[in-house]
Amino acid sequence: MNKEIKKICCIGAGYVGGPTMAVIADKCHEIIINVVDINESRISDWNNEDLSKLPVFEPGLKEIIKRRRGVNLFFSTEVEKNIASADMIFISVNTPIKQSGVGAGKASNLKWIESSARQISKFAEGFTIVVEKSTLPVKTANTIKKILEASNYGENTNNKKFKILSNPEFLSEGNAINDLENPDRILIGGEDEESIKALKEIYLNWIDDRKIITTNLWSSELSKLTANAFLAQRISSINSISALCEKTGADVQEVGLAVGMDSRIGDKFLKVGPGFGGSCFKKDLLNLVYICDYYGLKEVSRYWQKVIDINNWQRGRISGIVVEKLFGTISGKRIGILGFSFKANTNDTRESPAIEICKDLIEEGGELQIYDPKVSLINMENELNKVLIKNTSNEIGSWQYSNSIEDAAKNADALIVLTEWEEFKKIDWMIISKLMRSPSWVFDTRLITDIEEASKFGINIWKIGRGF
Ligand code: NAD
Ligand code: UGA
């Protein structure tokens, strides 16, 4: 038997739900897609006539919304109604790390998953396929199943029948539409042929059959955590080698090139930096560590914990080097920070390495002048207020928002490049050298500036992973 999917409901109009449903709507005109969320302002932003106000900025997204919104793609807060009429429901809600209680700081907080499952259990009608889109700990489908099965007891069961699929998302920020339109693979985990086929049929509208992998539920759930863990591991690996390069006179870019040209290793995700950031790598690694501990696999959990440890160490290492180079003290010294987002082409600051590095430098007494082309003052304030110790001691430094590279460099003893923004590649060092206080320093943690040019104007230079 074939289940025909005419209506989809996606719970969660966030970073994943919005763009993913937009692309499905764009590729499958005959399917009606309702994206629902409890956050009213987010929904009204998705419905904004002014497409520059969409809640998610992604190249290519605006154009799709313009084509499909109000045609076969709808955003609303009408959760119950849209659950009831759906043939297939995607759960795409947030799954952050728990802040308190059992597993605090490591386990995923599944309260939004559970509340979505309860809503589905209550309002769905007839046969509904429920798809896990959020990144989840392995075995979560069991919990969802139990909640859904509970709907078969009591009144108004309406002959409800559910099947669960796992279909994790691998998009990366800033490249979401391209990732969704041309994915490396689509992963569908499930227990029954009929629902797997129904979801596969949707993707077959634009994705080659050979790229669609089907597995059991648990392999699919675990593959998503594992993929993020492997990506993060590569970054920690090259970052750990950057420290050794600095000690030995090797150059991490040259080492990365030589290593990455081995086709068994590959050249992706070998860019050195101040440590990985973003909303998912740390969260998913912590979750993996927690799950391994839960199953008594101490060695495995320690192995993955090290990937996080190296990442933390890399950030701390950079603040330490800055202090050391500036004669062992930065108290009262002005330091320009170039870049605050976790990577270029996004204003997202979640888990950005800049946060901890700025915190360390402020606590060392530095006076920071922070510039980022896309991050707002409010966003910086929120992030730094979360981490700065409320200290009345005069020793602690301060920070201020800068409007430009020049503003951040004014009277500064040092500039630290923390995000690989395009405009940092084109810095005019002659102008900048005149604004800074001598002896001045530039620290490039992303290897993107023309730092050798800076040295021609008397600026001392430090490059990550480069032994001098
Ligand atoms: P997000 O916080 O941007 O969006 C989640 C949305 O779900 C929020 O708007 C929230 O209001 C809504 N929500 C929560 N509970 C709800 C409920 N019961 N009913 C209706 N709406 C509800 O999160 P995101 O970045 O889209 O991430 C979602 C999931 O996808 C996470 O598990 C994440 O790990 C995973 N993921 C994220 C990315 C990424 O780049 N952000 C990439 C791949 C996977
Ligand atoms: C990452 C994964 O790449 C996606 O496949 C995944 O779907 C997503 O997480 C998720 O599950 O949320 P994202 O966090 O958007 O995507 O960004 P990445 O491009 O992976 O970068 C993450 C961090 O690693 C950034 O801080 C970046 O600067 C850093 N990075 C990346 C490096 O330091 N070196 C590299 O070579 C690559």
Describe this structure in words.
With 468 residues, the chain is an alpha/beta fold. Helix content is 41%, strand content 14%. The protein contains 17 helices and 14 strands. The chain has helices at residues 17-27, 40-46, 61-68, 79-84, 111-123, 140-149, 176-181, 193-203, 217-248, 252-260, 281-294, 298-325, 353-363, 377-387, 405-409, 429-435, 451-455, and strands at residues 7-11, 32-36, 73-76, 88-91, 127-132, 161-166, 186-190, 212-215, 334-338, 367-371, 398-401, 414-417, 441-444, 460-463. The chain has an eight-stranded mixed beta sheet, with helices on both faces. Helix 13 (353-363) links the parallel strand 9 and strand 10 (367-371). It starts with 6 loop residues before the first strand and ends in a 5-residue tail after the last strand. The mean pLDDT is 95. Bound molecules: nicotinamide-adenine-dinucleotide (NAD) and uridine-5'-diphosphate-glucuronic acid (UGA). The site of uridine-5'-diphosphate-glucuronic acid has 20 residues, from helix 9.
List the helices and strands and how they pair.
Layout: E1 7-11, H1 17-27, E2 32-36, H2 40-46, H3 61-68, E3 73-76, H4 79-84, E4 88-91, H5 111-123, E5 127-132, H6 140-149, E6 161-166, H7 176-181, E7 186-190, H8 193-203, E8 212-215, H9 217-248, H10 252-260, H11 281-294, H12 298-325, E9 334-338, H13 353-363, E10 367-371, H14 377-387, E11 398-401, H15 405-409, E12 414-417, H16 429-435, E13 441-444, H17 451-455, E14 460-463
Parallel strand pairs: 1-2, 1-4, 2-3, 4-5, 5-6, 7-8, 9-10, 9-12, 10-11, 12-13, 13-14
Antiparallel strand pairs: 6-7
Bound molecules: nicotinamide-adenine-dinucleotide and uridine-5'-diphosphate-glucuronic acid.
